[in-house]
Each structure stands twice: as C-alpha cells, then as structure tokens.
Amino acid sequence: MKQILMFSVPLLLGNFLQNLFQIADTIIVGRFIGGTALAAVGSSMAIIQLLVAAFVGLTTGASVVISQFFGARKEEELKRTVTTSMIAMGVLSVILMVFGFFGAGAMLRLLGVDDVIFDDAVIYLRTFMVGIAFPLYLNIYMAYMRALGDSKSPLILLAISAVLNVIFTISFIVVFDWGIFGAGLATIVAQGLAVFACIFIANRKIQVLKIRLSELVFDRAMFKLILTYGIPASIQMSITGFASLTIMRLVNSLGAVATAGFSAGLRAENFGLMPLMNMNMAISTFVGQNIGAGNEERAKLGLKSGMKLMIGIGAFTSIVLLILSQTLMGWFVSPEDINAQGIIYQGTLYLWSVSLFYILFGIFFAFNGFFRGVGDQVIVMVLTISSLTIRAVLAHIFVLVFGLGLDSLAWSIAVGWFLCGTFAYFYYRSGKWRGKAAMSKLKTEEE
After folding, report:
1. For residue 9, what pLDDT band results from cuts at 50, 70 and 90?
2. What span, in angstroms and rounded, lies between the C-alpha atoms of 84 and 91?
3. DSSP assignment of 66-106, as one string?
4. Alpha carbon 175 to chain centroid distance?
5. Is 218 exposed, middle or buried (0-12, 13-18, 19+ CB in 10 A)?
6. pLDDT tens profile 117-138
C-alpha cells in the first residue's frame, strides 16, 4: 500500500494542479466571455474526446508493454516499443488534425449543437485541432514515464502546462480580447511549450526515452504487440467518446442552459474523480511491473491495497462534493449573466447526484487497473463498454421517456458502475486473466 500510495501522490498533485487550472480556465471563459461560450467549449470537448480516443488507446497499450518489459529488465525491447509507438502516433496525429479541422462544422451539426453556440464551438474546435499533436505527445511522454515508475516528472510537466495555460488564457481572453479563439489557442500554446520541457526532462533523466532521430526505428513485431494491447483499449476509448457524444447530444436537447450547467458540472466531476483515476494508474503500473517480474502474488496484493485506498478516497470525495457542489457551480458563471441561476442549478443538480456513488466507481476502477496491468485488455474493454452502454441507454430512457433532468444521468452512471464492478469481482476470482502478459505473447510470436 505504501508503494502504491507514494507512486500515486505525484500523480495526484500533478492532476490536481492540471484540473485546478482547467477549472480556472473554464471560470475565465464563463465569466469573461459568457455562458454561451461555456456551452460551446463543453460541446467541442465531447468531439475532441471522441477523435483522440483511438490515439489514447494505443498509448495505453504501449504503456502496458513498457511497464512489463521494464519489470522484466528487457531494455532493448522496451526502447523499440517506445520508438515504434512514437512514429505511429506521429502519423495518426497528422491525420487527426486534418480530419478534425475540416470536419468541425459537420460534426457539431450531428451533435445537435444549439445555433446560439454553434459559431463559437466551430472556432474553438478548429483552433484546438490545429495543434492537437501537442497534447497528444505530452500525454505519450507522461504515460511512458509513469510506466517506467517515474511519477514525479509528469508532476513537473503538468504543473508547467497548467500554469502556462492559465497565464495564456488570461492574456488572450482578458487582455487581448480574443474571445473563444483565445481560449483554444491558450491550451495549445501551453501544452506545446510543455512538450519541449518534456523532451528536455526525458533526455536528461530517462535513458530509454532519450531518442535521437537516427535511433527512430519502426519494429513491426513490436507494433503488432502494441496493437494487441492497444486495439481493445482504442475500441474502449472510442466507444467511451461516442457514448459521451450521445450524452452531450441528449443534454443539448435540454437547451443551452443545461449544456452550460452540465459542462461546468463535468469540470468539477473530473476534479472529484481525479484521485481515483490516479490510483487506477498506480495499480496498473504496480501490477504490470510485478507481472513482468513474475511475481503474481505481489500483483494481487497491490490490487487489495489499492482497493482499500480507492474506497476510502471515494467516500471522502463524495462528502466534500456533496457539501461544496453549489458553491463550486457559482464560480463558473458571472452573477450578471442572464442565465446564471439556471446554469448553477443544472450543474449543482448533476454534480450532487453523481457524487453519491464514487465508492462504486473506486471499486470498479480498481479491478480495471489490475486487469490492464496483467495485460487483459479485452476484459477492460468489455467492462468499460458495458458500463457506458448501460449509462447511455438508461440516460435516454430517463430523459426522453420519463422527462427527467440531469440528475437522471448520474443515476444511469451509478447503475453501470455497480453492475460492471460486480462482474469484475467474479471475473477476478475466476483467474481467467492469467497468461496475458506481454512477454508470453512476444515469445509466442517469435516461436
């Protein structure tokens, strides 16, 4: 428990800073541009999450392979995994940039974005997509650092990115009055500078991430291995993004005020879930390294210790958000905004409802972290997709059939967490997750 906790503390601090400054950005947008801009950013982010889903999934797959090779002390295979993934991700980022920029308007129309916020949403989405390679490569480097057991360097990088983001957001929106374009540009510029800082840190501290252009090698066998773990994660992430898109479309049908309130509520929810997500990454890394070293019992012990921490953190976070929900929502919009009270009410309604169930999320994601660490990406995919499908179906039934509001979205999430967490427990007890490690698969391929 001590090792998992010590590994997760820098993750927690880094993501705390990142989410804190993201909330600050959202507050700046809501207060200095307006509630419609807040809704535009929320709608655009739903599309961005869908577009980058496959990319994030491949990064997740490569991280699993890296952590297991690191645990097995296979440095040559580890470095080939890194260079292969870097090349593949570069190609994908260019494709993503072109598609996202030219398809922005069409995608927002399919999302059912209100005409009041449509133009702002197009500007924000196109601005973000032009520089999409920066946040993607920043996340790649940080994911690989964590897989190698270094959670302190990502803390530094997140802090740099977060502080720069707020400085540029204030400058571009408040000082230069660039509006919604300034909000998107601030994020891209900040993360671009953070990528250069990331390369500098990696070259000085982490030998396997110190890569010269002459050392870039695309290894087909390694790419195939990455895909073995990455494709299930990519499918999972893509469906996650699609489910989020359907939920956002459902929220958009309730009007721009509900969209703005929901967007603010999601920001605060991400802040609340952050400690649990960090613990999930810590469990996954701990388990992956121990499975790579052939120590299954210690990997299982990591799950049990991590589960206890997840339950405690989930209970504490629920209490804090139940108390502070309305206060937090009041930060996101100017009191002079004509829709201020409606936005605060809608955001509070959603946040208060979803925060009741964080213990269920903690249990579910503790198992997910363990299964990802042992290399069983298929069950992680199945569980996540099942949870999201339950959420999407129930949310549409609650809103469209029974005419309920944003609180019903929280209930649908809780049902998915409970059912999938229960199944995960029985799957863990069955032992079917054994034999999925990267070394086993690579050895089979070579034979």
Report:
1. confident
2. 11
3. HHHHHHTT-HHHHHHHHHHHHHHHHHHHHHHHHHHHHTHHH
4. 31
5. middle
6. 899 999 999 999 999 999 888 8
